[in-house]
């Protein structure tokens, strides 16, 4: 093999190796880490954080406050649900017209034909949040629209139909992210039936 031929072959092999490396780097069919590995768990939590943010979970499960440019989620209380120290008065009667419901300034309590609902504490606090929940309980709630898949209906304005349509991997990522949060003790009130809400 002449020096020129050897250089051509080496250049071709280098180009081929570089191409394979580039394809592996950008290929959507790259090898996934072993399930249960730290990398896989971290990726799942990161995906869940992205989904929670883009699916607007903070809009209701994080109490709002007045910021410099108007109302905004109070991220110091992220996903803690309706503040336990905020006792809501009976909701005012809806005015005539096409009004259907009303909400608290914190965007964590809502009144309508279903009564009064309060957004849940989604942190993994054992006593007041999702600390004792399993993934099966979480997915059953989202798929059936019932608390833990068998209890009372999940009330408006929770868009259960959106998470019900999520792929299993995405629902699992959301749950993994919620379980990764710092537990915050915040006991949310039970829903109020329509007859009681009018008192």
Structural class: mainly alpha
Could you tell me the mean pLDDT?
83
H-E order: HHHEEEEEHHHH
The dominant shape is globular
**Overall tally of domains:** 1
Largest sheet geometry = 3 strands, antiparallel
Explain what you see.
- The chain has helices at 3-26, 38-54, 58-61, 135-144, 160-164, 168-180, 194-197, and strands at residues 64-67, 70-73, 102-103, 109-112, 115-118.
- By secondary structure, it is mostly helical.
- The chain has one domain (37-83, 103-197).
- Strands 3-4-5 form a three-stranded antiparallel beta sheet. Strands 1-2 form a two-stranded antiparallel ribbon.
- Helix 2 (38-54) crosses helix 6 (168-180).
- The radius of gyration is 25 Å and the shape is globular.
- The model is unreliable at 1-35 (pLDDT under 50).
Structure summary:
This protein has one domain (37-83, 103-197). 39% of the residues lie in helices and 9% in strands.
């Amino acid at each position: 093999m002449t020096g020129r031929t050897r250089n051509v072959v080496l250049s071709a092999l280098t180009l081929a190796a570089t191409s394979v490396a580039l394809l592996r780097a950008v290929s959507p069919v790259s090898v996934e880490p072993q399930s249960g590995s730290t990398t896989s768990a971290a990726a799942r939590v990161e995906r869940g954080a992205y989904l929670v943010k883009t699916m607007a979970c903070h809009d209701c499960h994080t109490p709002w406050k007045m910021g410099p440019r108007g109302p905004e989620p109070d991220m110091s209380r992220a996903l803690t649900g309706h503040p336990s120290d905020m006792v809501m008065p009976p909701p005012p009667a809806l005015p005539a017209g096409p009004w259907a419901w009303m909400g608290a300034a914190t965007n964590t309590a809502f009144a309508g034909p279903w009564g009064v609902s309060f957004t849940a504490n989604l942190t993994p606090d054992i006593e007041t949040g999702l600390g004792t929940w399993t993934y099966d309980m979480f997915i059953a709630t989202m798929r059936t629209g019932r608390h833990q898949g068998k209890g009372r209906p999940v009330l408006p304005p929770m868009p259960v139909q959106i998470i019900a349509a999520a792929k299993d991997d995405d629902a699992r990522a959301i749950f993994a992210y919620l379980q990764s949060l710092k537990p915050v003790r915040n006991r949310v009130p039970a829903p109020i039936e329509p007859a009681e809400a009018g008192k």
